[in-house]
Every structure is written in C-alpha cells, then in structure tokens.
Amino acid sequence: MRLSLAALLLFASTAVAQTTGTAVTFTTTSTTSGTTVLTPKADCATPVRFSWSRTGNLCTGGSLFLFVSRSSCGSEPGLTDLKLATITDTTASGTVSFTVQDALALLATPTTCATQTSEISFNLCASAKTFASVYDASCSSSFSSVGSPAFVVKFDPAPPSKPSIGKVIARDSALSVQVDGAETKSTVVVEVTALTTADGGSLPDEDAGVDAGEVVDAGEVLDAGEVLDAGSVAPEPVGPTLSFRKAAGEGNVVADGLINGVTYRVQAKIIDEAGNGSDLSDAVEGTPVKSNGLFDAYVDAGGQERGGCAATGGGIAGGAVLAALGIWLSNRRKVS
Amino acid sequence: MSSTAVGLGVAALLLAVPAVAQEVTIPTRSPRTGAIIFRGGGYQPRIDTEKALEGKTPYKDTFGDASLLLIELEFQRFFYQGIGTAGLGLSAGYAEKYANALLEDGTQAADKAALKVLPLQLNGFYKFDYAAFKWGVPLVPYAKLGLVYSPWWMTKGSATEVVEGSKASGGKWGYAATAGVSFLLDVLEPRFARDFDSDLGVNHSYLFAEYTYAEVNNFGGKGLNLGSRRWMFGLALDY
C-alpha cells in the first residue's frame, strides 16, 4: 500500500513539472523612470527596444504573444494592439522593438505623432494560453499575462509651459536666476548671452526694455515684468550663449564665470522628464558686479597676509597633529 | 557530628552571608586615564589689530562686532595623578561667520562673505582636583598652555576668495594660555555619578568656564592675526 502511494506521488509531481507555464522577463536599455519608458515628441518615430527571455513551457499547440496594448495584458492581442512577436517553438530569448508612431496608428481612433497632443501610455505585454490543468499539457481556452516587469511606454508630446524669470540677482562674476513655472522632475535651463563688452561697449539697439550698458546694482532684483519690449528689436549679442542647468526645485540657477560690468540677456526654458523642451521665457537683463568679501577688504586695507604656500606647509603640520591624535588614541585603546 | 558542631557551622554561614553581600554592593571606581571635553563660545579673531592695517578695520567693516561661534572637542590624557592631575591634551575646533559682501560704495551685495577657521591645539594642563576628591570641594581650578595651529579660509559666494592672485586660505601658528574652573557635577547626584562610572566608565563629569588668551600670528610674524581673548564654556568627562 505504501509503495503504491509513493509511486502515485512521484507520478503526480512529474505531471506538475510538465505543466509549468512559461514566464517572460523584459529588460531595456532605454532610460526609464521605474518601469516607465518616457518618450518625448521628438522620439515618436524612434524605436524603443526591449530584450526578452523566457522560462517554462507553452501548452501543447499554444503560442506566446509579445505585443503592445492600451489595455490589460491577459488576453490574445486584439486589432488595436501592436503585435511584436509570436513564439510557437522553444525560442528562449530575443529582442523586440517598436515606435510610438506604429502604436498610435493602430488605435481605435488612429493618430499620428503630429496629431497626438495628449499624453498616452502603452503596456508591453506577453501572454499565452494557460494549461488545461496541472495534469494536462493541452491548452485551455483562456489566456494569462506572463510578462514582467510591467513596462509602460509613456508618450508625452506636450512641452512644458513657457517659464518666467522671477528675479535676476547680480552677483560677483555671476547672476543668480529665479525661474518660475517649472514642474517637478523637470530641468531648468538658463541661457545667458553677453550684450555689451567688458570695456562698457554699447548695445546696438537702445530701445531694449533695459537700457544698454546699464549696470544693475548688486542685490537689485529685476522684476520678471522688466523684459525686452515686445516688438522692439532685440539687441544683438556680442558673445556666445552660455547655458546653465539645474533640477527644478533646487533653488536659483547660478550662471557663473561671467564678467563683471557686462550686461547679459537672460532667458530660461524647462525640459520635462520626457525630454520635451518649453519655449524660451521672455528675456531679462542682468549685469554681474564686483563685491568685496573679507579678504578683499583686508587686502585693500593694507593687510600683508597672502595665504598661498603657508597653507600647504600648515596643512602638512595640521595633518601631522591629527595623525598624532589618531596614534595617541589608538595607543590609549590598547592600554585600556 | 555533634549538635554543637552543627550550630557553629550555621553561625559561620550566617556571618558569611552579610560579608558576601557587602562585597557585592561596595561601589568600585574604574581607573581614570583621561578626559573628553566639549566646549563652545564666541571667537573674535584680532584681525583688525594687525599693524599693517594702520587702524583700518576690515573685520569690523564686514562682520561688525559679531564673533564667530567656535565649537571644540578635546581629548586629554593624564600622566600624573597625585596632588592634582597633569597631562597632555589635543583639541580641534571649527568656527565660521557669514555676512553680506560689500559693494564699492559700502552697501551690501547679494554675495555672502565668510571667514572659516579650524583651530588645532596641543597643550599641557594641570588641574587641582585634589581638594575635590579628598575633601569634597566641588570646584576644580585648572590651567593650560598650548601650541596652536589654525587653518583658515575666506569665501565669497561659494568659492574661496582670490585677490590679486592670492588665494584666501592658509594656516597660522601661535600659542594659547587658558585658565578656568570646573564644577564637579558628581556632588549633585552621587549615586548617578557612580552608575555613570560602573556603566560607562566615566569617573567624573564637570561643567566649566575658561578664559583663553591666544596669540596666533606666526609668533609675531606679518599677516593675519587669528589670536583672540575669549570665554568658553562646556562639559568635561573624566574616564
């Protein structure tokens, strides 16, 4: 009796092993936020690639479908889904790719990269028919989702709103720019362009909202409203446009390495998480000004300290003192 | 065995029990080998006293009469414990002060100017704690004499200042003499003090006030004077 029971158990476990369903694992080299692949409008027609690998078996006569869908993944791909691959054999891995453009074309109401103006998401799916039972390798009539992780390709065609510049604070060799209107997880980009020369050269156009060559006092805040007049001819830049960027929510963007006394045109734009760029903000002007810290004041007053080499020698001496402290403490621990 | 012998045995046991109990409850003092000291106070470097400045006051013009907040940590090791305690100490501290930089016309700029100092000191000390431990007087006067090295740097905005090609950073040597008095906290909670010793090995704890006379100008050399006259307050733990 015992022998019969053991034989039955062994037989049953073999049967269960035979009906282990397939499972697909997706990976991608695309930039993701968790399992979401963000696609900006500019990349609408650029293929998004995924690698896949699978384990387990298909039910007899069954297929593994890899596809992109707007709905859930636990079914056979429909007419509005974008089929990527159909696997009927024992192929264990591969790659699939598709463009958002292709997926948009199959929507119930098809759109294009140009006409799709709102955000839309697509699920990367893998589905296969389930086994009839744990003892039966034939296929049932129902499908199940077998892919993981649940990648979502999110198409974000909408650029961020045009930002505004709240303040430009003149600093020594720098401008500190407050940009308003940036959404979270976006990047603020500030572009500065010299409009005057270091020797006080004049602007080509005197009609700008801020007078040409005007030196903005340090600490003076230029209101966002103080922009170049609409309709006026923007002054011609006399230098290259420099770009500075910072994550939104991390405070003012500091444009440094500028020349004191030179007036700069300042504009900002926002790049959202997907990579869409906003229009440039209205232009504001700012002029870095020299300020004096303690060392400036000290040297101006005739102080003879010049730092420099003494710092190196002193650093060695200070390091030696600290090393002595460490050795002494180490010795103390051994004693105790 | 006679009943007399049994009686003597019981008596001996009864006598022994209190003796054992007494041995367990007698507090023991862990050996005292050093101290750790935390202190803080205002530190106003004597920058404006440099002769070359000829009465000009760049520190005062930038920071007014405000002092830097100096925080220090000191480790001491005792080499003599008899009539008082003597040994060597090493300390490290940090102080900084921020203010608005100034424009040419003297008005405040948007940039922040800062002075930062990292004083290091090796000192010898003596504290007269004999009276505290022998007669229960809770006040412990002490004195220190030390060699000082103070790395310093000055910033404007987020960078170290550079003026006429000279970077505003360096280090100054000097000396410091300190006198102070500690209040032995053990007298307030003797039992807690004993527990502190048996649990953590801290023999005594003190609150103290001290006055420091420091000359930190490369022993009279030219340049920045980071010396000061200052009061410091803190907590000391003997271990």
N- and C-termini, Cα separation of chain A: 72 Å
* Overall residue-averaged pLDDT value of chain A: 80
Instruction: Kindly name the structural category of chain A.
Output: alpha+beta
User: Helical region count of chain B?
Assistant: 4
Q: In terms of structural class, how would the helical and strand content of chain B be classed?
A: alpha+beta
The low-pLDDT segments of chain B are: 13-26
Helix content of chain A: 10-25%
Shape of chain A: elongated
Number of strands of chain B: 12
Radius of gyration of chain B: 27 Å
Tell me about this structure:
- The complex is a heterodimer of chains A (336) and B (239).
- Chain A is of the alpha+beta class.
- Helices cover 17% and strands 34% of the residues of chain A.
- Chain A is built from four helices and 18 strands.
- In chain A, the strands form four sheets. In chain A, strands 2, 3, 5, 6, 8, 9 and 11 form a seven-stranded mixed β-sheet that branches. In chain A, strands 7-4-1-10 form a four-stranded mixed β-sheet. A four-stranded antiparallel β-sheet of chain A has the order 15-14-17-18, with no helix packed on it.
- Chain A is elongated.
- Chain B is of the alpha+beta class and 239 residues long.
- Chain B has a single domain (34-238), classed as Porin (Beta Barrel).
- Chain B is built from four helices and twelve strands, in the order H-E-H-E-E-E-E-H-E-E-E-E-E-H-E-E.
- Chain B has helices at 3-25, 58-63, 130-135, 190-200, and strands spanning 34-43, 68-82, 84-102, 108-117, 120-127, 139-156, 159-160, 162-163, 166-167, 169-184, 204-215, 228-238.
- In chain B, strands 1, 2, 3, 4, 5, 6, 7, 10, 11 and 12 form a ten-stranded antiparallel β-sheet that branches. In chain B, strands 8-9 form a two-stranded antiparallel ribbon.
- The longest helix of chain B is centred in the N-terminal third of the chain and has 23 residues, at 3-25.
- The chains are: A alpha+beta (336), B alpha+beta (239).
- Chains A and B meet through strand 12, helix 3 and helix 4 of A and helix 2, strand 3, strand 4, strand 6 and strand 9 of B.
- Chain B: It comes from Corallococcus llansteffanensis.
- Chain B: This is Outer membrane protein beta-barrel domain-containing protein.
- Chain B: Keywords: Signal.
- Chain B: Residues 1-21 form the signal peptide.
- Chain A: It comes from Corallococcus llansteffanensis.
